[in-house]
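Please produce the structure of this protein holding S-adenosylmethionine.
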Amino acid sequence: MTTSDASLGRITGAYPALGALVRDVLDRWPAHEPYLRRSLGAHDDDVLAVVDGAAAQVARLIGDQTDTFCEHYRWMCDVFNKETLHFLRTGAYRCKTFAEANAQVYSNAPFMEKYMNGLLVSQALWSNHARAVYGYTRRFMPTLRPGADYLEVGPGHGLFLARAADDANVASVTAWDVSPESLRQTAEALARLGVTREIALVQRDVTSAGGDERFDAIVISEVLEHLEEPRPALTALARHLRPGGRIFVNVPINSPAPDHIYLLRTPDEAAALVGSAGLRIVDRSAEPMSGYTLDEAMAARGTVSCLFVAEPAA
Ligand SMILES: C[S@@+](CC[C@H](N)C(=O)[O-])C[C@H]1O[C@@H](n2cnc3c(N)ncnc32)[C@H](O)[C@@H]1O
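Below is the modeled complex.
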């Protein structure tokens, strides 16, 4: 399949897990079809194969709760649309501080549950999220040396952790998260994903000083925009990298969401942030939101996921 002849019918036929997820969503929300056609139709075969793997992980996490997750996905799309209107009107994210995000989102358990469930579905269906999975899978993981000690900060649903646990080059897998509740959810997700390998889940603020642990691979995906000041977090992570080690950074720009605090406006601004933390970028890409080219997304102040593979600068 090429980009030009991609259609939802062909995708659902050729990629079973992705096809099933698309059908489950469209059965309950037919009007979402044009969005999914634009989003998934932009991927080539290799991207779709990787996204199909992610969709299989998503299906395991959804289990028999299809109605609930599809409903929460639709609800979350609505929440994002409202945040987008606010952003386009004001040029700013609604929350500026962690305290605000905590009051409005993190400490609101019913909101958080729906939000996390919706985000899970978006990992396979939203173009920029799917391409982050692709970048991690094809451009980061294959570059790891054998025997790599692997760290992920803020692992969420554990989709990346489960892949790392399955990778023959990875000797140990560790995850840090500041939130005990997030770690509990990650542990539950890993069990549902069938991960049996030992993974150290550690409550830890990435910006906290100290600790002499060193890793060969570090992943921080969709976390920096949740921080009031992301540079100290990246600088700390740069210090936790062994010489020759690599970090995968995924940070969205122009990405209004209820709990996003730190606004980056251009891919170069995101690259400058990574560079300012003592990291040398060896690979980068900018993945626009569904249905947009990069130029179109920049002109519309739309969301772009910025992916970086970097290593210690000196
Ligand atoms: C949106 S989730 C990221 C989920 C996943 N990485 C993804 O790409 O979908 C952000 C996570 O970062 C964690 N986090 C936020 N600030 C942190 C900090 N200072 N140190 C460690 N973890 C942090 C949050 O608790 C949350 O679990």
